[in-house]
Amino acid sequence: MMLEGNFNYQDFVKICKMVHSITKIDIRLHNQDGDTLFQRINHYIPAVLHQPGNEATKMNEILHSLQANHYYHHINTFGLEYLAIGIWRGPSFYGSILAGPFISHLSVIELLRDIISKNNLPIGERKQLEQFYQSLPTFSETEYKNIGEMLVNLCGHDFIYSGAFSSGTPLPPLKPALQKTTIEGSKHLIEYRYEHQNKLMDAITKGDKAEVHHLIHSMTDFVAFSDRVPGSPIRSSKNISFVFNTLCRVAAEKSGVHPVYLDNISERFAILIERATTLSQLKKLFVVMANEYCDLVDTFATGHYSLMVKNALDYILLNLGGPLTLQLIADEIHVNPSHLSRKFKSDTGMTVTEFINRKRVEEAKLYLQRGNSSITDVAFMVGFNDLNYFTKVFKKITSMTPSHYVKRKSINLKNNS
Known about the structure:
The chain is an alpha+beta fold. The chain contains 17 helices and five strands. Strands 2-1-5-4-3 form a five-stranded antiparallel β-sheet, sandwiched between helices.
């Protein structure tokens, strides 16, 4: 099958398969009309993020206006990023390759808050969206620029099929002296990890960012010296990073954070760690991991409550943007509503309604701080169906109205800028 003219369809399919295999990024091959000729897709975009119109046609129009040696980096309103590369021969445009979506933001939690606020998305969709964004490939600016340049070069001429030759020569055995040094270095790393493990576990379980950051600072300083392990500084640092990711996940789970919040974030950081190429990238990941896991503990920890109340809290936190009543929650977790009400008050010091309102106000404050949505939109996003009731509850909890809160935050931002 041909794209058009002298272009062999299978050549560009080969390019798409190769790039997908190396980068794990979704990739599509389109003809000049925007029709999809081939695709390798691992990430299916949630319905709430779909945009009207044919994205491929829009991309082709932009690529058609660019020179042949250019690629187009596109970021849509939902923060999803794409690379589009035109297929040219001389002055003729024959189609395009579209790679994405991916993200370049390390903190999905912060990114998602902005996206929900900017696009007025219902907060009830956040869990599904968080799982989707956590699953996306994450590339630094340098990395996605390199992918763009690679695609430009691959598409700029006829595909060259290569042969392979391997010497099959085994690596020489490690010298005894070097092996001893490596073992001693590994022993030192292990001793260091276990020395800090209990302190880190306790701090993360409490969501104590200050203490966690203090401990991380000493760990990242140590990681910077991991090049003392001969021949494997990055590998040694990655091993420590994997341990830290696991440590964070176990500690957060110990605090009562539901596994649904932990699975994707843990997997995503594991991928980011493996893809890191410098010690500075790994040090930055330490800080981002600590912040995100502590945020999860601060927001979703329920481990210090009785099983009944923990189940109720998990249900509330997973469905905060939807309708929530004592009867509905009791039915969902199969308990008597009166018994749940008494136990909930005993464990938390709040009624079920007071807890729901407090959590919704906490969410509302995050969106109001960003200033992307009206107060009415924020009220509906976090589960309030009545603006006057939202204002009343907000003032009761924060001692100010939502509009006063927005004004004060705006003044603080101006004073700090």
